[in-house]
Specification:
alpha/beta; five-stranded parallel β-sheet; three-stranded antiparallel β-sheet; binds adenosine monophosphate
């Protein structure tokens, strides 16, 4: 199974990506997580990405694409891609790499959610500094305040989850990433998933959409 997840920041793609990768037994590639890990470890890649991320801007295409191609080589049995592609050049680079490997994409799922729900969700989001699992103070709190259920790591508010930065990220999403919907629609790969509601139910909607697509 090779799928990409589209949708604005705060649509719950991270949580859903984990669940779909587990369900299909494939690798999860979350570019934002990879960048955050590199920033923490102060690698050359992290140093390149840091200022863009903190400002809620996109990291330049050449940096992201290079990193992603490396990740794809390590995912011969399929993947769930969360956070990539975010621009047309990224989508084209992905398409080209997968075509060269004879392993085209199976689907692009777009998680649909109103902007105001996104802003409210991200304000309450807390992220594990160790394993990147996300929680929400209101809708999905950890069992112990400030501590990750999964690994015991510390939960913090991401710098770019502050309201002003969230609004800026949404603008960039509408400008640069939303056009990808058309790109995948034209290729017959797009399915929309309603991203409002209970986590388990959203996962079932996504799996239903993927099964539906596989039948067509
Ligand atoms: P995310 O966790 O997916 O919201 O990503 C966090 C930040 O990492 C983004 O706001 C960007 O600065 C950067 N980033 C992640 N994926 C990409 C991408 N495909 N293209 C450009 N920047 C990205």
């Amino acid at each position: 199974m090779r799928i990409v997840l589209l949708g604005p920041p705060g649509a719950g793609k991270g949580t859903q990506a984990h669940r779909l990768a587990d369900y299909y037994g494939v690798r999860l590639i979350a570019t934002g997580d990879i960048f955050r890990r590199n920033v923490r470890q102060e690698t050359p890649l992290g140093l390149k990405a840091k200022s863009y991320m903190e400002a809620g801007e996109l990291v330049p295409d050449d940096v992201v694409i290079g990193m992603l191609l490396e990740e794809l080589r390590r995912s011969p049995n399929g993947f769930v891609l969360d956070g990539f592609p975010r621009t047309l050049p990224q989508a084209l680079a992905l398409e080209e790499a997968l075509a060269a490997a004879g392993q085209p994409l199976d689907a692009a799922l777009k998680y649909v959610i109103p902007d105001e729900v996104t802003v409210a969700r991200l304000a309450g989001r807390r992220t594990c500094t160790h394993c990147e699992r996300t929680y929400n103070l209101e809708f999905k709190p950890p069992k112990v305040e400030g501590i990750c259920d999964n690994c015991g790591g510390e939960l913090v508010q991401r710098e770019d989850d502050r309201e002003e930065t969230v609004r800026h990220r949404l603008e960039i999403y509408h400008r640069d990433t939303e056009p990808l919907q058309k790109f995948y629609w034209e290729r017959g790969l797009l399915r929309e998933v309603d991203a409002v509601g209970e986590v388990e139910r959203i996962t079932r909607r996504a799996i239903g959409a993927l099964e539906d697509l596989a039948r067509t």
